[in-house]
DNA sequence: GGGGGAAGGACCA
DNA sequence: TTCCTGGTCCTTCCCCC
């Protein structure tokens, strides 16, 4: 606590040499640290580290204040709780499993040295001038280590050879090693390319009964990389694997007693692991270190004990485990990093014995999760169950670059990242609901901004739609200053479960009977209509929130009924800003040509299944598919559906668009067509090519696109087609504006009509106010509830939206128009917050 | 008070 | 001149139910 205010000294704990790594013992730490410090000083990175260090110091100071307030009584109580839990944990201690942690020695560097023998005697590292992935043991003597920038490493060791990474090669070697692992534990858990946990309990059980021949391995010339063939009688032992590390405790302990022809391995755990390491070396010419213990935590620590090219075992006896833990520095334990280390050090805790002594105090200063973890560590407990194939939680991609201040470039990069991420997601068949944008500015300050969509996404367009809005908010927040970035990343998380992922395509009936989203849209639609009554301005008529599944913008998503109630203060502020800037954004985006990802006539062929007749259509383009569905619908069993159900559908279709900016409205007007035109025209709107369902089994993409628009053409699931004008959305990336066009045109060209979303009857739109009044009259609670009750939801995620509508209806005497308004467009949401939730802030 | 989203951060390889 | 990438988990804050 003494030196918290001396930046330089403090900073050492963050950026100075971490000699925790193998091969780092006995270095001239002071000299190395001086070089690191001098090279770093004054840089933005250094400044940021200083800031972070101060934050940690503040945390420590707070903790110490808290500690000072702890009474003896509290401590006594805490000790009792600790003792109780300790007893329970002791009782459940499991020593029966034999867990092995195998770690390849300086993996990337070793592979490069193997393939380029000239490097063997030189200090070398793998990586670049900006960052090193790993270094060989020669280089480590100079203080060169993984996660160190190359230019600093060069200062420490001017003769350092830096080799660029070659992941394909490492992956190939890793595959060879994993093949061997799987013979000892078919369910082994790979942690990275060079590391894995194995549970060899079963293997040892069988091994006991194995004859010697099954445990005999002949020695190959490691250089050739041949398999160590169990049955090969003659095999030369000309040369062992290259000695990668001259300070290796024993280059190949397994062979110290070998007679040069073959090695017979015993049946014990040590022998099995020695055999495994021997085979790895024979196969890859690379050495591995291993730890053997009753649980994963201990095995991990053990594998580090005799690194490189060694192994260590903790036998399954409580006393031995406790003895081993006693002197172990807490930092050696996986999960204890530099921050935790420093916080514990402030409490006088450096090794696990001290950790154990101070547990009561820790239980009062740290969260339950944290101190339970500390307790486990101090007792030498860890997981005894190797869980393989645990489900991935997120997927991301990020890029670091030189300063980037140009917004256009940033959007473009963002799109690139979304493109890459979409490919990765699709390769693994994943779809997630949360899109997170990560930004690091030139000051090394990291920001993440996330948005959770109402459905899972995996395409570039879908991800970009959300990411670019998040980016825009950040760009605008510093405007007119440019956002100066050095890193951008995009992540998708909140994956839908494998169950939900099954690509089920529902029948048209299933679709029509489905659930809350329709009703939700219905109410939203109605709300929009009602909203239009308030706006005497014809241009803002019908501004429903988007149900467009293709590329809804964040702002559109945010205005979903469910979402409105979950807006955080930040979100509300963000939403407001988004709204204010929507108009500008659209013109900016248009100007920047970021919207024309799919301009021109779509000639792409797809394999699609008609949702009406279930016919599989090969090599069909979207327009033809669209036409097919239209034809199908004309003669389909939609007759079974009460007529009034179709109308909301229609209206939902039409409402599947966000509000247009006035400039776009003008654009729409100027490009106005005959409202009944149905011909296909190129569109700038993005078509989504896959036939899938979302997590709720809802139709996604083409079919939904069909419902909204495919390749510029809007089709409506109804026997009555709505007038459509397709070339109306030139300006927008994320939105289509057909309804706007319809209404624009409807009001422009006398005599056109719109179908009432409630009663399905075509209504003249010559007078919008009249039309609105008609809808208002049609729209009443009975209709809504009747609709709901005759079409119960089937567990759809949008159901809460309806519940909230009902709830409000039930609890409030407001007329339907008022109630629904709450769920309507984003333009009303702002007002809603001001008048309702906004008051709470 | 619990659940869940968002943001940030620790930690790992 | 130059300090990564991709992942998980935890904590804190906030809102809603």
UniProtKB/TrEMBL annotation:
Instruction: Give start and end of each UmuC domain.
Output: 99-337
Start-end of Low complexity biased regions:
661-670
What are the residue boundaries of the UBZ4-type domain, all occurrences included?
753-783
Q: Where in the cell is it found?
A: Nucleus
Drop me one GO molecular function for this one: zinc ion binding
| GO biological process per UniProt | DNA repair; DNA replication; error-prone translesion synthesis
Q: What PROSITE patterns does this protein map onto?
A: UMUC, ZF_UBZ4
Main location, first listed in the record: nucleus
Per the record, where are the segments of Basic and acidic residues compositional bias?
227-240, 641-655, 791-801
Q: Which residues form a coiled coil?
A: 43-95
Q: Which InterPro entries match?
A: DNA/RNA_pol_sf, DNA_pol_Y-fam_lit_finger_sf, DNA_pol_Y-fam_little_finger, DNA_polymerase-Y, DNApol_IV, PolY_HhH_motif, Rad18_UBZ4, Rev_trsase/Diguanyl_cyclase
- According to its UniProt record, which reaction does this protein catalyse? DNA(n) + a 2'-deoxyribonucleoside 5'-triphosphate = DNA(n+1) + diphosphate
The EC number(s) given in the record are 2.7.7.7
SMART domains under this entry? ZnF_Rad18 (SM00734)
Q: Which UniProt keywords apply?
A: Coiled coil, DNA damage, DNA repair, DNA replication, DNA synthesis, DNA-binding, DNA-directed DNA polymerase, Magnesium, Metal-binding, Mutator protein, Nucleotidyltransferase, Nucleus, Repeat, Schiff base, Transferase, Zinc, Zinc-finger
Q: Which Pfam families match?
A: IMS, IMS_C, IMS_HHH
Q: Which cofactor does it need?
A: Mn(2+); Mg(2+)
Q: Which Gene Ontology cellular component annotation is one that this UniProt entry carries? A: nucleus
Q: Which domain of life is it from?
A: Eukaryota
Region ranges (Disordered): 227-263, 536-568, 640-692, 791-819
Q: What family name appears in the similarity comment?
A: Belongs to the DNA polymerase type-Y family.
Q: What does this protein do?
A: DNA polymerase specifically involved in DNA repair. Plays an important role in translesion synthesis, where the normal high-fidelity DNA polymerases cannot proceed and DNA synthesis stalls. Depending on the context, it inserts the correct base, but causes frequent base transitions, transversions and frameshifts. Lacks 3'-5' proofreading exonuclease activity. Forms a Schiff base with 5'-deoxyribose phosphate at abasic sites, but does not have lyase activity.
Protein name from the UniProt record: DNA polymerase kappa
